[in-house]
Amino acid sequence: MSRPDFDDIFMELAVNLAKRSHCIKKHVGAVLTKETRIISIGYNGPPAGTHNCDLEFPESGCARDSKGSCSLALHAEQNAILYAVKNNTSVEGSTLYVTLSPCLACSRIIFSMGISKVVYLFSYAEYKGIGSDEGVDFLRKFGVEVEKYSKELEVQDQLI
User: Fold this and answer.
1) What is the pTM of this model?
2) Pairing outcome for strands 117-122 and 95-100
3) Which H or E element spans position 109?
4) What confidence tens digit (pLDDT) does each residue in 2-51 have?
5) What local confidence, expressed as pLDDT, does residue 157 receive?
6) 45 Rama class: left (phi>0) / alpha (psi -120 to 50) / beta
C-alpha cells in the first residue's frame, strides 16, 4: 500500500469540507496546516448562528452584492483563519489548502496574517469569468508562495 502525500490528504480534506457548504452557488473548502498538522478548517457560508442559504433561500440563494458575490457568507479561507485565531492558534508560517484560489479580499487577509503558502485546486478567475486570478497575483507579488494543485482528484459535487 502506498502512503499518500500530505498535500493529497489536505486537498482531499478541503474537497470533502466543501461538501459541507450550504451555498447554492459554489462549495469551497479550506484546510490550514503547519508542517504535517491541521490547525484549522473551514468552508464557505454565513456566520455560525445565522442561517443556511440553501434552507433560507432555496431557489435563488442569498442576495448578491454589487460585484455578484454573496452578501452574507464568509469565504472558506476566512472561516479557517477566523476559527484558528478565535482559538488562539497562530497561523503565521502556515499553509492554506483551498478548493478555489483566493479572491483579492481573502488574499489581503492571507498576506496580513502571515500565511506563507497557498495551494489551490480551481481558479477563481475561471469560475468568475474574469481575466486573471487577482488574489493569486497579489500573493505572489508580496512573497507568498502559491501553487495550483496538479494531481487529479475525484470531485463528484459539480458545485465544487
Assistant:
1) 0.90
2) parallel
3) helix 104-112
4) 888 999 999 999 999 999 988 878 899 999 999 999 999 999 988 888 87
5) 62
6) left
Q: Which three cell numbers stand for residue 130?
A: 474574469
Classify residue 104 by its DSSP letter: H
Q: Which residues contact 139 (CB under 8 A, 6 or more apart)?
A: 102, 107, 110, 111, 118, 146
Phi-psi region of 88 (alpha: psi -120 to 50; beta: other; left: phi over 0): left
DSSP assignments along 42-85, one per residue: EE-BSPTTS--HHHHSTTT-SPB-TTSSBSSPBPHHHHHHHHHH
Nearest-angstrom CA–CA distance, 138 and 147? 13
Pair 41, 11: CB distance under 8 Å: no
Reduced to 3 states (helix: H, G, I; strand: E, B; else coil), residue 89 is coil
Q: Which residues are known catalytic residues?
A: 77
Beta-carbon neighbour count of residue 9 at 10 Å? Answer: 16
Show the cell assigned to 98: 483551498
